Amino acid sequence: MGLKVDLSNTACLNHFSQCFWFLFFRLLVKVALITGGASEIRDNIVFLFLIHGAKICIADVQDNLGKQVYDGVYPASSYLENDHPISRRVKMKGGKKVYWRMQWLWVLVALVAVFVAMAMSSKTSPRIALFGAIERACPCARFSGIVEDCCCDYETVDRLNGEVLNPSLQELVKTPFFGYFKVKLWCDCPFWPDDGMCRLRDCSVCECPESEFPETFKKPHRLSMNDLVCQEGKPQAAVDRTLDSKPFRGWPEIDNPWTNDDETNNDEVTYVNLQLNPERYTGYTGTSARRIWDAVYSENCPKYPSQELCQEEKILYKLISGLHSSISIHIAADYLLDEATNLWGQNLTSMYDRVLKYPDRVRNLYFTFLFVLRAVTKAADYLEQAEYDTGKPNEDLKTQSLIKHLLYHPKLQAACPVPFDEAKLWKGQGCEKCRLWGKLQVLRLGTALKILFSGDGQENSVQMLHLQRNEVIALMNLLNRISESVKFVHEMGPTAERIMEGHLSAHTTLIITWKKIWSYVLKN
Ligand SMILES: Cc1cc2nc3c(=O)[nH]c(=O)nc-3n(C[C@H](O)[C@H](O)[C@H](O)COP(=O)(O)OP(=O)(O)OC[C@H]3O[C@@H](n4cnc5c(N)ncnc54)[C@H](O)[C@@H]3O)c2cc1C
Asked: Whose CA is nearest to atom 5 of ligand 1?
């Protein structure tokens, strides 16, 4: 049959998409797509439905040759009216009942096909149940086994994070001790002139009045020189020491040699309430923001991804990348969706485009989490004995008990006692290479590095570790931030991937399907 139908005819297509059954079938196809049906079956279902819709559409066009083309909605029920070609044809074979039976047959066939597709895909892909409930499988089937260079597997990390770490950390960062951070927000950029301006109001930091900042934080505690044991004639290197039986000796005001920031100059520092300054989308984008990341990567990992990189350099790269992933996840988790209405929410597309699409970035996030967790557990004795005094005794007791709960939780001890084995790295004295990190200006990671690579790597060393109050605050907040990112990836990652990958394959499928319809129509 040499039927010529112009499928680009908009009236036809309008009518096409308004057909009730076609929409219903399309819904079923969507379910098949979301559940990740095997591509062959999925294509055929789409093809089948579109052909059915096309037949109705063709019949309409045939029926209206020489008449005015339809305008507006043509409801499905009108197929059953007397003057409609299909219902007329159906009536000749027994009237409306036969027609309806035909439609139910279609529905039955469609449902069977969808369930077969779901069953076939269930072995290989994470699932969404038919009515929207997310089945909690592994975060992404791709991430299983031991986290590279670490001593725990992905499943354990997700479980421990969900059951122990994240809930405790969320509580901990709300306590007064961990809620305030002393920071020098303004300093000259050593790399290029920068006005530090960004587009959104949300970019600016909400500083807190000095009166709100705990009094105890303002009294400096200087270590006596007896506490400092010189190493290679550099007193600043002497603060890097492993732990002894009485680790905590008050909060010192000594600069961290692993970072460039000098927060000890009290004239220029401001106090921020971290709860009022969540890490989220700030509108800091474009070349300015990207330039910073470029500088961070090129300064610290100039040869990446060359094979010549030594283990230490690879670790440095993974830490930066993991931190970068965590920041990107937070931006996506709390995004300004509509500036006009000030609507905030999750942006799963951004999360997918910036992080999930690149499995290495997810792996680096998990790696950084375990690295920082190891720093925290290694400093357990120190952190347990530290004073969390903010002048609010009840709150401070709670802080102390939360710290103990976190550090000595039996599940953590049992499942992941040594999240990362730093003993395999930086065995030599001094480790000038590691001091590259000083350029990072990232106090948080700097603190983790300071704990992990203090002293000469001997577990029994009696030399001392001294942490600033600000460093401990930064460290626990960092652990919490990465814990949030890992949790978000675990909970929302599969949905984001399914939506994004579904979109991509839906577009591809549609193009292929239109081609099939076109050649089918031409042949018949
Ligand atoms: C320290 C720091 C903190 C920031 N905090 C915020 C914030 O709180 N809120 C906010 O809105 N913006 C923040 N920004 C800016 C934000 O990180 C992005 O730079 C900005 O949103 C622009 O993003 P982008 O998509 O252009 O790519 P960027 O995130 O700028 O990435 C630049 C390039 O780095 C590579 N890359 C990206 N991610 C990774 C990864 N995980 N591992 C390896 N390579 C990667 C890619 O090639 C990418 O094109 C921060 C930037 C920095 C440097």
From this structure: 327
User: How far is 483 from 329, CA to CA, in rounded Å?
Assistant: 11
- 466 vs 254: CA distance, rounded Å: 9
In 244-387, where do the E strands start and end?
270-273, 335-338, 343-345
Cβ(289) – ligand 1 distance below 6 Å: yes
- What residue's CA is closest to ligand 1, atom 51? 289
**Has residue 524 got a pLDDT over 70?**
no
Pocket test for ligand 1, best of 205, 327, 350 (most atoms within 8 A of CB): 327
Domain boundaries, the chain: 10-135, 154-501
This prediction has a pTM of 0.65
Number of neighbouring beta carbons within 10 Å of residue 249 = 15
Residue of the CA atom closest to atom 28 of ligand 1 = 290
- Residue 320 CA to ligand 1 center (angstroms) comes to 11
User: Which one, of 132, 8, 18, 30, lies nearest residue 75 by Cα?
Assistant: 18
325 CA distance to ligand 1 centroid (A)?
8
pLDDT band at 457 (very low <50, low <70, confident <90, very high): very low
Q: How far is the CA of 327 from the centre of ligand 1 (A)?
A: 7
Question: Is the minimum distance from the CB of 293 to ligand 1 under 6 angstroms?
Answer: yes
Distance CA 293, CA 303 (A): 15
DSSP, residue by residue, 18-60: H-HHHHHHHHHHHHHHHTT--HHHHHHHHHHHHHHHHHHHHHH
- The Cα–Cα gap between 379 and 276 comes to 28
Cβ-based neighbours of 138, under 8 Å, separated by 6 or more: 126, 144, 154, 155, 158
Handedness of CA 17, 21, 27, 31 (dihedral sign): negative
Contact between 281 and 331 (Cβ < 8 Å): yes
Q: Facing residues of 183 across strands?
A: 270
Burial string for 182-200 (b: 16+ CB within 10 Å, else e) reads: bbeeeeeeeeeeeeeebee
The per-residue pLDDT for 49 is 53
CA angle 248, 402, 247 (to 5 degrees): 10
Q: Is 518 in the pocket of ligand 1 (CB under 6 A)?
A: no
- Residue 142 CB–ligand 1 contact under 6 Å: no
Helix boundaries (H) for 133-207: 154-160, 166-172, 176-179
Q: For 425, how many CA atoms within 13 A lie in the half-sphere containing its CB? A: 19
Highest mean pLDDT, choosing among 198-207, 214-223, 278-287, 483-492? 483-492
Q: Distance between CA 304 and CA 310 in Å, rounded?
A: 10
* 94/238: higher pLDDT: 94
